[in-house]
Amino acid sequence: MLSPKGGVRTSRSADSVYERVKSMAITYSIRPGERINEVELARRLNVSRTPLREALNRLVTEGFLTAQLNKGFFARRLDAKEVFDLYEFRGAVEAAVVVLACERATAEELKALEEFVLASKDAKEDLLATSLLKLDEEFHERLARASHNGEFLRELQSINARIHFVRWVDMQSRRPYTQNEHLQIVKALRKRDSSRTVQLVREHIGRRLDQIADGIRAGFAEIYTSNTLASQLGEVIQDGPV
User: Fold this and answer.
1) For a tag on the chain, would you pick the N or C end, based on fewer CB atoms within 10 A?
2) Burial code of 153-180, b = ≥16 C-beta within 10 A, e = fewer?
3) What is the reported pLDDT for 163?
4) CA 65 to each of CA 10, 23, 143, 240: distance values in angstroms, whole numbers, following the listed order
5) Which among 135, 128, 238 has a CA at the least distance from the CA of 182?
6) What does pTM read for this prediction?
């Protein structure tokens, strides 16, 4: 039950703290393995320790941070095997998604999806591939919606958030291919060709462990030099009320 004395505002403040710290974790504004100084972070966010601790615990549960007994909270490490496991899991989720989409998506939904992909091909690319990654994530979320199973969409959004930084690094070299691969997937979907669609999705998502390791090395170089993604998304924390 919400408190009559500002319960709504408190809830919104907690959600805002969560979103801001989550953005920091996703973009590695907090460097891999770095211990989070709760007092300093609360000061920078201009919030009390209570909503901050609530946000940190929630982010540990969701896999964005780690916690050690009597030591506190830490930023996730960039671990190649963990990222590989997430890509593999994502491939399994999206394979199941497109099987259901072949069965359940309406003709209008698939037509709209194809129109979205065609419009995306004409979208102006920014030099950092941030807009391209956003379009890519939206395409896959639209696929999940076409399955008419909300659990798949929520799971996919969670996975994508956890590999967002690595996917952004990866997108630097995948610009020429991404939209064409999306179009092939949609055409197979419109034919209701389940096996072909699953094959295309797995090929589109699949990454070998050595490819992921190369991407993580590039990610470390980015984090410890400029971390452009964090800067571009405005995740350099600024003082101000939440």
Assistant:
1) N
2) bebbeebbbbbbbbbbbbbeebeeebbe
3) 93
4) 23, 12, 28, 24
5) 135
6) 0.82
